[in-house]
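One record is set out below.
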Amino acid sequence: MQAYLEFEKQVADLEGKIRELQNMGADGEDAAASVNLDDDIQRLKTKSAQALGDLYKKLNPWQKTQVARHPDRPHFKDYASVLIDDYQPLAGDRGFAEDHAIQCGIGRFRGRSVAIMGHEKGNDTQTRLKHNFGMARPEGYRKAVRIMELAQRFGIPVITLVDTAGAYPGIGAEERGQAEAIARSTEACLNLTVPMISVIIGEGGSGGAIAIAAASRVYMLEHSIYSVISPEGAASILWRDATRAQEAATSMKITAQDLQQLGIIDGIIPEPVGGAHRGHEAVISSTADTLDAALKEFDGKSGDEILKQRREKFLAIGRNL
């Protein structure tokens, strides 16, 4: 059953009527009545598709935030299972524990050996608890550093898929050096002499996202968000009122369209009409094509060239030219 967002009420009503008519048609025996129902169903499907398309053409930043957080969007494991052949998961930070919020592994992407990592939120209560809703502890970022060092040693590109509300802010995580782990992971990204391509597939929240997204190329899905803090957190700090999150989302410039215009990201990957959660195969295919094209840009480039390009990319952010 499709989970609808609060601004999709019109579409939900239309699709509800379609299901009612389909159930009536399945129970009916009158052929003439069945034909009439088919006509009504088709008319409603056309109207629903039009309503959905019109709605998603003019989403505001807060609505895009809701879409980015939709529980049915494809997650890291959905992408990795399709994109990567001969996938071999790698676990543990070799220091304290395995953090399930960040998944890592190596494999082959369209015939090319790669290291891949990303946030995994889980898709039901049990897996969401296991993966801590995609909020990594220090061990997750130290594991990410280990995988980046492995990729560097063997000269293979790194792909990262970002989808987190932010790093886990618990007491234990802070005691074990959360800030230091994020800083080390960001440093490791910036020091790689192999290509690193990042895609924001849902939420890109705060340092928890940038720690594995300081990449040679950064892309965002059409309805994803990327921000220094959540809209609710910003509203709580600025106005001491989390209910003003919609206002904060609009002011913060967190959408893919805003960030491309500001030069923060390198491109936008289109989503199916109605969001990635309505078309997993299509959005994963588009992501694969974008990753492939980005990696080919670095074929034949030396490690020094790759390192210089990445550093210049981030130093250029915010400059007035």
Summary: DSSP finds 14 helices and eight strands in the chain. The chain has a mean pLDDT of 90. The CA atoms of residues 83 and 134 lie 20 Å apart.
